[in-house]
Amino acid sequence: MNRKKLVIILTLLLVYATAFGIYSMALDYFKNSKDVLSLSSSSFSDGETDLTYRCLNEAEAGSISFNAAFHKQELPAVAEEYCLIVYRMAGQSFKVYLNDIYLGAAGDYEGINSSIWNGMFIFEFDKRHLQENNQITLEIVGLYDIGLKSFPVIITENTNGIVINQYYQLFQVWLKAIFIGTLISGSIIMLAFYFTFFDSPSRQTFMLMALALFISIFYFIDFFTINLLPINFTLYKKLNITTVFVVVVLINFALISYFRMPKWRFVPYLTLAVSVCGAIFSRSIQQFKSWYDIYFLMLPANLLALMLMMAARKLRSQARYLLLIYNFTLVVAIIPAVFNLTFNFDLDIFYSTVHIFLIPMSVSAIIMVMTEMQKLRCTVSKENKRLKYFYNKSITDGLTGMYNYSFMLEYLHKIKPVYTVVLLDIDNLKEINDTLGHLAGNRAIIMIADALKNLLPKNSVVGRFGGDEFMAIIFVGENIAIGVMERVRLNIAASGLFNADPKVSISIGIYAVKEAEAVDEIIDKADQAMYYAKKTGKNCLVSYGEISDKNNDNS
Predict the structure, then answer these.
(1) In degrees rounded to 5, what are phi and psi of residue 350?
(2) Per-residue CA distances from 259 to 200, 210, 264, 270, 462 (Å)
(3) In what order do the strands lie in the sheet with 505-513?
């Protein structure tokens, strides 16, 4: 297993472990803390059943009153003011009474158009409401389910209750901001890819994923506490749940398009058909809940279909990462759900469509973005290499690999003194070509080029200036440059490249540039020195200063 896969697995494990740890600590605090009086679901009764979460049939739906008793001495501390906290109460609304004194309500009790199941509600009262023996009454309106989802009802000192509520609100804001922010930013990124890469074969995938991520936001509305819905509650739940399956369909189409596997389109079409039929043909919320319990299985079925789709062929590396993520998701989401249904374990933190599909969907989007960014980087890298290749060809000599005439002139225009310009010419190159052939002449040119590369200081710039001429720019004074070039001349003269005549040698002209001059003048002076070296017998070195002094003496 490579490092990337290990990082993905460990990250997912950390996310689930953190969520489960926070959940467990909160549950343990509400049940066992000495700072609170905890009234579990079994503490409440309507005369027949307790307040343990359950689904209702049509005959049971409506308002049901549950009572729980406690003694004044059971309260955690003597205080002037107390509060009663109800968290994650299943039902559409409820009222709270203490010793028949109305403390408040949550949700739309009369119209029954509210979504409060994920909310925390605080009802304050002072010690004057308390008796030695007290009774809490919850009048709950439930259309399709009712009861406490894991957390008990608690009574605590008012200040402690405010702190608990503040932590809850902070956690909710943080969690919702992360989820919704991730979905919005992800959809924007996908749209940016869609409008940027017009020729990309993945362009359709970008649009589908952008829609899926954006539509997912509407599903997360159900995690907000809404005391008064603008529409009928049954219609709200149908729209909300159907949104999940629309997202599933879009993701399926996106991945099918991305991996070029059109034969699997029947899976999202079937999912859409089943979910739409469930929403249209269920006449009540109870019927819709029954539909939902059945076609909820379409979510893991879609995951399994995607896994089979990607496993059926040798796909790209990102497909293998998705396959790994989906396997992990099925294990950590579906197995606890089966335990919930079979053994009635309290693992409802996992029993959520978010964990079954929306989280791996987000990871899928991230992997796709990373993949496309990698493709973009590869394209840019290839283009840079291509441009660099053609640029290098434009400034170098094909035979020697040295800089060419154009580059050397351009370089001379850029640099500032002090430096020394060297021009050298191969003696007898025409004779070598005529006697030994042009291949021998090329060997001589390459040998001199190698000598210049190896024997000149590393910061020197060397180029082929013409057919048998070379230029070197050495960043030293004239005397040091003469010593360096003399060593080059002797090395070439002693090379014995050819056993027969003509021998290979060079004539060198040097000009030390001490102040700014025109490039043409610099080259002309170095050329005069080189011409003088050839005129006076070849295989020698002459500096411009020498011929300048001789000219002055003659005048």
Answers:
(1) -95, -20
(2) 13, 17, 11, 20, 53
(3) 461-464, 469-474, 419-427, 505-513, 541-543
CB distance 145 to 65 below 8 Å: no
Location of structure tokens 């992990």 = 328
Cα 49 from Cα 47, distance rounded (Å): 6
- Angle formed at CA 273 by CA 270 and CA 276, multiple of 5 degrees: 145
Task: Using DSSP bridges, classify how beta strands 505-513 and 541-543 pair: parallel, antiparallel or unpaired.
Answer: parallel
- The C-alpha atoms of residue 526 and residue 471 are separated, in whole angstroms, by 9
Q: Which residue has the tokens 């749209």?
A: 191
At 551, is the secondary structure helix, strand, or coil? helix
Distance in angstroms (rounded) separating the CA atoms of residues 368 and 383: 22
Q: Helix (H, G, I), strand (E, B), or coil: what is residue 106?
A: strand
Quick: pLDDT tens for 333-360.
555 555 555 555 544 444 455 555 556 6
Radius of gyration of the chain (CA): 42
Measured distance CA(509)–CA(543) in Å, rounded: 6
* Amino acid found at 285: I
Picking from 155, 148, 164, the residue whose alpha carbon sits closest to that of residue 123 is 155
Whole-number Cα distances in Å, 67 to 39, 95, 128? 11, 12, 20
Residue 431 burial (CB count, 10 A): 13
| % of the chain with per-residue pLDDT over 90 | 42
Query: pLDDT per residue over 540-553, tens digit each?
Result: 999 998 887 666 65
Do 107 and 118 form a contact (C-beta atoms < 8 A)? no
Q: Which residue type sits at 187?
A: S
In this structure, what are the phi and psi dihedrals at residue 105, rounded to the nearest 5 degrees? -140, 160
Regarding beta strands 101-106 and 120-126, do their DSSP bridges make them parallel or antiparallel, or are they unpaired? unpaired
Minimal CA–CA distance to 415: which of 465, 464, 475?
475
Residue 546, C-beta contacts closer than 8 angstroms, at least 6 positions apart: 529, 532
pTM for the complete prediction? 0.65
The Cα–Cα gap between 329 and 17 comes to 13
List C-alpha distances in Å: 472 to 390, 533, 542.
Answer: 24, 17, 15
**Looking only at Cα atoms, what is the longest distance across the chain?**
132
Q: Which of 86, 78, 74 is nearest to 134 (CA)?
A: 74
- 1: its two tokens: 């297993």
Rounded Cα gap, residues 398 and 400, in angstroms = 6
Helix or strand (DSSP H, E) at 105: strand 101-106
